[in-house]
Amino acid sequence: xxxxxxxxxxxDAAKRLKGKVMRTPILSSRLLNERLGxxxxxxxxxxxxxxxxxxxxxSNVISQLTPEERSRGVVTHSSGNHAQALALAAKRAGIKAxxxxxxxxxxxxxxxxxxxxxxVLTCENSQAAREAMCREEMDREGLLLVHPYDDARIISGxxxxxxxxxxxxxxxxxxxxxxxxxxxLSGTAxxxxxxxxxYGSEPEGADDAHRGFTxxxxxxSQTPHTISDGLRTCLGVLNFxxxxxxxxxxxxxxxxxxxxxxxxxxxxxxxxxxxxxxxxIAALRNGSLPVSGKxxxxxxxxxxxxxxxx
Amino acid sequence: xxxxxxxxxxxDAAKRLKGKVMRTPILSSRLLNERLGxxxxxxxxxxxxxxxxxxxxxSNVISQLTPEERSRGVVTHSSGNHAQALALAAKRAGIKAxxxxxxxxxxxxxxxxxxxxxxVLTCENSQAAREAMCREEMDREGLLLVHPYDDARIISGxxxxxxxxxxxxxxxxxxxxxxxxxxxLSGTAxxxxxxxxxYGSEPEGADDAHRGFTxxxxxxSQTPHTISDGLRTCLGVLNFxxxxxxxxxxxxxxxxxxxxxxxxxxxxxxxxxxxxxxxxIAALRNGSLPVSGKxxxxxxxxxxxxxxxx
Lengths: 310, 310
Known about the structure:
Low-confidence stretches of chain A: none
CATH class of the largest domain in chain A: Alpha Beta
Shape of chain A: globular
CATH architecture of the largest domain in chain A: 3-Layer(aba) Sandwich
Mean pLDDT of chain A: 94
Oligomer: homodimer
Strand order of the largest sheet of chain A: 1-2-10-7-8-9
Helix content of chain A: 40-55%
Radius of gyration of chain A: 18 Å
Number of domains of chain A: 2
Number of strands of chain A: 10
């Protein structure tokens, strides 16, 4: 198994990414605090390039490629934010990118991926079909796989958001992120270790991380039912290991709670965030996390169909 | 007449404000560029503390007060963003603030001003009534007036947004801002002098700046009819002088164009901005400004009634 990334790896990633990723702002709202009963600080990765924290990990991988690897190009499978992030990071570096997206992917995210100049291929909506088509491209075109989350470089890159967060707000009592494949949560927990506890939050309809965290056995398949399209995947192997070692707990929320949280964030901060990003806010609201005082939330992404707010 | 602020004044303000104001992010959207026919970069002062660029000027004044002045407290009249900004800057410095707001002010902005702990007084909706009530408070309580725009410290503070903008995007071919009292436009033009041309933009229903700029005679009263509530005031005396000397032109837009621009910005960047902030986008769209290439727009504020987007 791959070795768990360290705080040093996250710090190295931050140096590598300086000037390449956006140092996103931290917003707060007194009225939102009153609604939630805690003082909440929002790290706006929804404003990150390509609209999500994913750009940090993708850029961390791309910027470490050798000239030979760069000439080959990259491939991944993703239904959304990682697709856009890798497409943009590759475009900026002048590298070819092929993205395999399952049928039924968010059309808004697909259009953005194409707009970043990537070649988008469509496959059946199953993990097996995604991996098979990726493998085919790797074999035929010599492309390098950039996994969306189960990769120490992706985890370290994702952790740089928490590093910035704690630089600006060293007084945070806890940080909460959503958890899907586990890249953001494991990176955040790695960056914050010894500074403050880190919690995950996920939809009841895709609760593999919560179950695995509780039982100690990683859940490797599930049939997700949730509007939070970024959180439908199962935890990666390395991600599971890091989360078991470094995360304090995982809260669960319903989709109705998520939709309400989206509306609150928009109302009080003007930010249109995607459902996955609202999950931590919903978890603060429903009391499924034992946090108090000053709580940092990483708003993971803003690639939402604007029609959801109409 | 007060002396025009210099680039050095803006640079000094930036040093003074370091760590006190948010270094706001710059967003862009390929699809928005396609709609506008220029490459546009948005400096998100809607995410600034207190929700608008006004916090820069207010903080620049507050941070230069003597201990004796601090003990007296401050007063201003404002229907909106300057009210919130001064209230927050004063609260952070532990200084008393009294804000005179005219009847009919945006209730959302009024509530936020009160939430920042200021004493809010209501006056009749006329320039004379606002100034009279301010004067009364100054005389009775010994409060210091912090004018919303007609003040070199306010102009220099507002200019720090453009300074940051040009640090990150030295390749801008032009910068466009809205113009009401003229604090942002004159500060921006001062910061950008010799770097790139700066344009203003204002609603047809409050076109005093355009008329004054064209005729050379400042328009000192008008009866505004526009949804852009931040742009209903007339240009200040010092602001007019700076704008005549340093601004390249002023575009005009209709309220319908402004509303459409608000929706575009929300759709393509997820940012809920107030109507005043959408005026430069509307001016880019309707061709009333002779700009091309890479155009910077300062999104002046985000203190909008969220119901406008429902």
